Amino acid sequence: MIDKRNFASLGGADHGWLKAKHHFSFANYYDPKRMGWGAIRVWNDDEIAPQSGFPPHPHADMEIITYVREGAITHKDSLGNQGRTSAGDVQVMSAGTGVRHAEYNLESDLTRIFQIWIEPNRAGGAPAWGAKPFPKGDRAGKFVTLASGLPGDEDALPIRTTARVAGATLRAGETTTYALDASRHVYLVPAAGAVEVNGVRLDARDGAAITGETGLRITALEDAEIVLVDAA
Quick one: which of 123, 188, 187 has its CA closest to 160? Predict the structure, then answer.
């Protein structure tokens, strides 16, 4: 089953410095049919104006993955961590027992990110943060695991949940596949370009909520950049 979520149908908010679209209910956007997908709780498509950002605020018991699509994001938190994550790269914050963090666009141009929240397997644990570069060339024509709590994914950023975040870049006409258990919940979004997923067309920034499938066959109709989460 593939439930297509057109970008135009997403909830959202325009705060001036932040233009956000929400694939699931978030903040003032509430849709009882879109409360999450399996363990995936949030998928926000954010555009952050230059020299602005999210001031310090708290989180607990959530795995928060930031995929930078354009520009860069600068992270600061109450643990003393600080780092700049640029386009194509990923950062992960395990909120655990509690942490305060800020995310700023200190660049001269717009920054675009996907921010994804996944529920952890268990509450608590010491909070942690990490970031890692993922060159798009390494993802050419295939999925590469970016963050994961699954066995065998030790080269990815660690998250405390039985989920995987993966990315791929495809040239127009290229096809790649992704095997999965039919009981899993996958959410897939083309960050750029149009693709066909098991015969369903998705344009840039559309979402697809997928379950009951034993595999995905993804063909790029245009040059495309794809992000998916495979969760319980």
Answer: 123
pLDDT tens for 140-165 read 999 999 999 999 999 999 999 999 99
Domain ranges of the chain: 2-231
Rounded to an integer, what distance in angstroms lies between the CA atom of residue 1 and that of residue 71? 34
Eight-state DSSP code of residue 35: S
Residues ≥6 apart with Cβ < 8 Å to 40: 24, 116, 117, 118, 119, 163, 185, 187, 229, 231
The pair phi, psi for residue 222, each rounded to 5°, is -140, 170
Sign of CA dihedral 107, 40, 4, 26: negative
Q: Model pTM?
A: 0.97
Distance in angstroms (rounded) separating the CA atoms of residues 33 and 100: 30
Percent of the chain with pLDDT over 90: 100
Sheet with 164-170: list strands edge to edge. Answer: 2-5, 207-210, 185-192, 224-231, 164-170, 144-148, 157-158
How does pLDDT run across 193-207, given as a tens digit for each residue?
Answer: 999 999 999 999 999
Band (pLDDT 50/70/90 cuts) for residue 29 is: very high
Question: Between β-strands 207-210 and 2-5, what pairing exists: parallel, antiparallel or unpaired?
Answer: antiparallel
What's the rounded Cα separation, in Å, for the pair 193 and 73?
23
Class of domain 2-231 (CATH, top level): mainly beta
Full 3-state SS string of 99-156: EEEEEEECCCCCEEEEEEEECCCCCCCCCEEEEECCCHHHHECCCEEEEECCCCCCCC
Q: What is the mean pLDDT of the chain?
A: 98
User: Residue range 33-55: average pLDDT?
Assistant: 98
